[in-house]
Design a protein that fits this description.
This protein is mainly beta and 356 residues long. It is built from two helices and 28 strands.
């Protein structure tokens, strides 16, 4: 793997710190760990037994957002916006993080087996997407025609082994239940693309512009028969069947992004950013159950491995909000000053980024 320039090298103490931080999740009797990526820092580690911050992991690069972890907990992966790479962290503490160049604006990370799938945008100019019809949107028209990419990284070999050509501004990533298909939301193209995960071949493209703007979050139901997709600029969630046909439109709060089913597939949770709420829907009727007040710019969330709590990364209010998954009430707010973006747990659990 390519190493970053010297100003990103880690202090010698890092290997010791990582070893101290990451191995406790393997100890019997603990509830595991949560890992929170921070755009203005590294990764915050939260002990799920105490719901207290243990410490932080320096990922050795700038602007970590997307985050993923292998099923065995061996590798933690972050997508680093400012440096155009990913950090691969050995959670045993046996080695410093290693770096793999990806491309401009790497954003979303999903890990399946020993491979990581990372969306990135060659046309990216940085910053939030312009509003449809605005001058900035018109200026970006040409750039928005440049396809995004999904880089596939072999974590054992430490290199990009393949790239899938997506549509403009690739965003969220999901796998079909049988892990044979890769499903990607494409923001500026207002589409969802379905690819063969082995060959990368485009199997189907679903245009969603007639329903709304900016598809971002996507999640498959536990039984594999339903997909939900959030439309950020249209305050809406789409429900698709296993043939990727839109079967329902659901109104949400303002600016929905992260979305997930619970483990039993009975409820759907939506992080409505500008609504400042985590919204709960019945997964059969899609009637709203409850709005849970949260914080500012809460984009991504995860259940704890025991399914008893939900943790939201709220970037603009500098906190991780903890919610009782049964009572649907906020129970704690954990300070995190470095603009939290995403969150995953080990052992892996249901959430807007990951699933078991």
């Amino acid at each position: 793997m390519k190493q970053q320039s010297s100003h990103h090298k880690l202090k010698p103490i890092l290997v010791f710190v990582i070893g101290m931080l990451l191995v406790p999740c393997a100890i019997a009797g603990t509830k595991g760990l949560a890992y929170v990526s921070n755009q203005d820092g590294g990764v915050t580690v939260i002990d799920l037994e105490t719901m207290e911050t243990k410490d932080g992991v320096n990922v050795g690069a700038k602007g970590p957002r997307g985050i993923g972890i292998t099923a065995n907990g061996k590798w933690l992966v972050t997508a680093n916006k400012d440096d155009g790479n990913i950090s691969v962290i050995d959670t045993s503490g046996a080695a410093n993080p290693k770096f793999i160049a990806i491309g401009k604006n790497p954003e979303f990370v999903r890990v399946l087996g020993d491979r990581a799938y990372i969306t990135y945008e060659p046309s990216s100019k940085g910053g939030p997407p312009p509003k449809p019809g605005s001058e900035a949107d018109k200026e970006d028209d040409d750039d928005d025609k440049i396809p995004g990419r999904i880089a596939i990284v072999d974590l054992k070999k430490g290199k990009v082994i393949k790239e899938i050509i997506g549509k403009p501004e690739t965003e969220g990533v999901e796998f079909s239940k049988d892990s044979k298909k890769l499903i990607v939301t494409n923001e500026s193209d207002n589409s969802i693309t379905i690819h063969d995960i082995k060959s990368g071949k485009l199997l189907k493209s679903v245009l969603v512009g007639q329903y709304g703007e900016r598809p971002r979050g996507i999640k498959v139901s536990p039984d594999g028969k339903t997909y939900v997709v959030t439309l950020e600029l249209s305050d809406k969630m789409l429900v698709l069947n296993e043939k990727f046909e839109v079967i329902k439109e659901v109104s949400t709060g303002k600016s929905p992004y992260g979305v997930s089913f619970d483990r039993e597939g009975k409820r759907v949770f939506v992080a409505a950013n500008k609504e400042k709420a985590l919204q709960v829907f019945d997964a059969k009727t899609f009637e709203k159950v409850k709005d849970i007040p949260t914080g500012d710019r809460c984009w991504h969330f995860s259940f704890t491995p025991d399914d008893q709590q939900i943790m939201l990364a709220c970037g603009k209010s500098s906190e991780v909000v903890v919610i009782d998954a049964n009572k649907l009430e906020v129970t704690k707010r954990i300070p995190d000053k470095d603009m939290p973006w995403g969150i995953v747990t080990y052992p892996k659990s249901m959430g807007s980024i990951d699933r078991p």
